[in-house]
Each structure stands twice: as structure tokens, then as C-alpha cells.
Specification:
- This protein is mainly α.
- Helix content is 61%, strand content 0%.
- The relative contact order is 0.21.
């Protein structure tokens, strides 16, 4: 299995601003933790 995703830093620091959106930095770590948990669950 192959899993690829953008980090919170890239998503919220580059992609969101490019589209005029924002996300508070204090929420970035929570998103990274969510991605980690989802990937670990998917990989079993």
C-alpha cells in the first residue's frame, strides 16, 4: 500500500493562502496527528 499526503505546514501554509483561506497555526499539530493516526490505522 502507498499513502501520500500533504503536511499541515504545506496545506495550511501554502495551499490555503493561495486560495485566500487560512487556518490558525495552533490547529496544525492536531491535523498532523490526525493524518498520522489515519495512516497507522490504514496500514494496520
Amino acid at each position: 500500500m502507498w499513502i501520500a499526503y500533504n503536511t499541515a505546514e504545506y496545506l495550511f501554509g501554502v495551499i490555503y493562502p493561495r486560495h485566500g483561506l487560512g487556518m490558525p497555526k495552533d490547529m496544525w499539530a492536531g491535523f498532523n496527528n490526525f493524518l498520522k493516526e489515519v495512516c497507522e490505522e490504514a496500514a494496520g
